[in-house]
Description:
149 residues, two-stranded antiparallel sheet, HIT family, subunit A, 8 strands
Amino acid sequence: xxxxxxxxxxxxxxxxxxxxxxxxxxxxxxxxxxxxxxxxxxxxxxxxxxxxxxxxxxxxxxxxxxxxxxxxxxxxxxxxxxxxxxxxxxxxxxxxxxxxxxxxxxxxxxxxxxxxxxxxxxxxxxxxxxxxxxxxxxxxxxxxxxxxx
Length: 149
């Protein structure tokens, strides 16, 4: 199903960020989450929200993770507001489905403006992408099936 590890994984770049072992500017953080810019942005504003606890990917989520996902979404909205994104209706938030996740540590992509994403970004994060699942669909699947299908 996927692993969870409070101490993180030695070879995980996002665990290195969590453990202050990387030179990454943290935009927002709390006891459970942190947010930083994506190094290969797919939109003008492209942020990643990650849990401090290592969770491999969205398919490792279970129904009791709904509050975690909801907090990740809240942090995504906060970073957009903090960065003065004016059109909050032109946002995409979601996760890549394995095996299409570039880093095996759960991370929520927060992108804006979604309507201005280029062709390549549309393939990776757009509505027709086969390997990107929106946060709404993840939450619906967790509520209905107890897991992400």
